[in-house]
Design brief:
globular; Aminopeptidase; single chain; 7-stranded mixed beta sheet; alpha+beta
Length: about 150
């Protein structure tokens, strides 16, 4: 399936929140200690704030079906952080996330360093990010692990 990423608008806040809720709540099937997700994952106003203040994207198929979302933050000179990426449960494990990350990286061609964090318990995410070229750089006491990807030109 071919996908596209486009900047989210204010009108996307509610549908992106619904997709985020489904995606993160589904992690209970992959080792999450309870239903839930990162801060604001299920709050429309939080999603709206990110749309207004961050680089927030929607992930869609070629027919315009909303499949997921992503949030990217500038962290410094030529350094971007993938703050969040999520897909509907029925779109996971199909290569869509890999396409989305490649498209996001192409959107920021001057970026030399990408970073992200994910829960330490989430072996599926960790394997995915490592397949995408990210390397483990650290672990925090509250159960997050950090990854980085150096872009070589």
């Amino acid at each position: 399936m071919k996908i596209c990423i486009t900047r989210a608008t204010e009108g996307d806040a509610r549908p992106l929140t619904a997709v985020s809720r489904q995606a993160f709540d589904h992690d209970i099937h992959y080792g999450a200690p309870q239903v839930g997700g990162p801060p604001g994952y299920d709050v429309v106003n939080w999603q709206l704030r990110t749309i207004l203040t961050c680089d927030t994207y929607k992930i869609e198929d070629e027919n315009g079906r909303l499949l997921g979302g992503a949030i990217v933050y500038p962290k410094g000179y030529r350094h971007m952080e993938l703050g969040r990426i999520y897909l509907l449960p029925d779109c996971q494990n199909q290569g869509i996330g890999a396409q989305a990350i490649r498209l996001l990286e192409e959107t920021y061609p001057d970026t030399d360093l990408w970073t992200l964090d994910t829960p330490a318990w989430n072996a599926r995410n960790r394997h995915f990010y490592e397949r995408m070229g990210y390397r483990l750089t650290g672990e925090e006491e509250h159960g997050c692990v950090w990854y980085a990807k150096q872009v070589v030109r």
